[in-house]
C-alpha cells in the first residue's frame, strides 16, 4: 500500500498528517496524529484532512486549530468515512472560466497522488481561487415494518434482503456500555472500545441491512466474517483479538448481565484462537521495548548535546526515567506535593489521588526514594523553583483528549533519539524502564522488590496477599543505590536560570492558547 506523501509514521508506529504552511515567508509544519497504525486508515484520514484544510483555506480560516479537524474526522464511523471518500470531490474554478473537477477513488493510489499534486500545484500558483469539498453522508434508515420476525438463519444475506430480529439494538448497547464503564476505564481505553464497537455495529448494519440489529441475533459466523474483513484491511491477528474482539466481547458481557443475552453457550467472540498465550509470549519477546545499552546511554547523556535542549521536560524526564524506572505518563503528571520527605528521606509519590492523575495498574501506585544522583544534579532545587507556577511539577504541560500529559514530551524525546542516530524503533522512553529493571536484576535485587520499585504487578499470592511493602529507607539502601550507570552526571548540573525562563515562556504561550480557545468558543456560542 503506497502511503500519501503527507503522512509520516512515528517510531511508535502511529501515523501523522504533516501539515505544512508559510507565515510571512517562514516555512512551518504541524503534525496531526491520525491515531492509527493502520496504513490504509491513515491514508483515508489524511485525504479527508487535506480536503477540510483546503476548505478552511478557501473560507479564510487556514490557521484554526487543526485538532478540531481531527475531531471531525474521528467522529465519522467507518461507513461514513467510506461514503465520504467515495464522494470526495474537489473542484478548481480558474478565473478564466471552466471548472476542473477531480474525484478520488480511495482504492486507487494514482487518484490520490493526482489529487494531492493538483491541490499543491493549484495553491502554489497565483490564480488559485476556490476549492470545494463535498462530504455527503448517507445514513442507514430503518424500513417501515409492522412486525418483528425472529430469524435463525446465520448465512450472509443478499444485498437487498432485510433481516429483522427483535431485541435491543446493538447501537443502544454501545451507549449503555460507555455509560457503565465511564468511571472504570481510562478515557483513552473507553474511546478505543467505543471505536471498535462502533465499527462492528456499522458492519453488522450493512450485513443485516438494518441499523437496529440486536446483539442476540449475532452469530459466530458473523464474528468469523468480521475477522476476515479486518484481516483483509491489514490488521494483525494480535490487534484483532486483543482490541476488536475484546471490545465486542464487552458488549456480550453487558448484554448477559442485563438479561439481553439468554444463550447458554459461550459468546460468539470466544475460541477463534487468533492469538494464543504462547504466541503472545513469543511476540512480546520479539517486539518488546529494548533496554538502552551503555553506549546508548553515553550518547543520550553526553553533556554537550544533552544540555543543548531547552525544555524542562527534555532535561528532567530522561534523568527521572533512568533513576526511577517510571513510565513517562507517571512522571509528566507529578505534582509538587508528590515530592516529600519520609523519615528524613526525599521521596516521590507516584499516585492517582489528584483528579488529573491516572495510573496504568493498581501496582503503579507507589512511593520510592529520590536517587542521590538526582539530588546532586539539582532536582530539589527544580522542585522549589516550580512552586511559584502552581501545583504541577511541569506546569506548562497540557493533557490531551484522554488526560495524558506525556504526548508532546514523548514525541520530543523520540526526535532527540533520532538526532543522535538512535533510530531503533524498539528503543523509546519506555526503554529507560527496561534499562533500570535489568540493572536491578543484574545487581541481585529480587523480583518482588523490583516490582515494588518499578511499579509492576507481582503475581504470587505470597507477595500480593501476605507480604508488606518495603519502606522508603529500605528501597534507598537496597534498590536505588544499585542504579549506578557510570555516566558523566556531574557535568549535568541543573541549568536553573534557563529552565525557569523556559517555563515562564511556555506558560505565557499556554495562557495565550487557552485565551484564544476560549474566545473561539464564545464566538461560536454567539
Quick overview of this protein structure:
The chain is mostly helical.
Biggest pleated-sheet summary = 3 strands, antiparallel
**Highest CATH level, the class of the largest domain:** Mainly Alpha
Quaternary structure of the protein: single chain
Can you give the mean pLDDT?
75
What is the number of beta strands?
A: 8
Give the C-alpha Rg: 27 Å
Strand order, largest beta sheet: 1-2-3
Assign the structural class, choosing from mainly alpha, mainly beta, alpha/beta, alpha+beta, or little secondary structure: mainly alpha
Word description of this protein:
Strands 1-2-3 form a three-stranded antiparallel β-sheet, with helices on one face. The protein folds into three domains: 118 residues, no CATH class; 116 residues, DNA polymerase, domain 1 (Orthogonal Bundle), CATH 1.10.150; 214 residues, Orthogonal Bundle (hpI Integrase, Chain A). The protein is 48% helix and 8% strand. By secondary structure, the protein is mostly helical.
Topology summary:
Layout: E1 7-9, E2 15-23, E3 26-33, H1 39-58, H2 66-74, H3 78-86, E4 89-92, E5 100-103, H4 109-124, H5 170-181, H6 187-208, H7 220-232, H8 237-257, H9 277-287, H10 294-300, H11 303-306, H12 312-324, H13 328-332, E6 339-342, E7 345-350, E8 366-369, H14 372-377, H15 379-386, H16 407-419, H17 431-442, H18 447-454, H19 461-466, H20 472-478, H21 496-525
Antiparallel strand pairs: 1-2, 2-3, 4-5, 6-7, 7-8
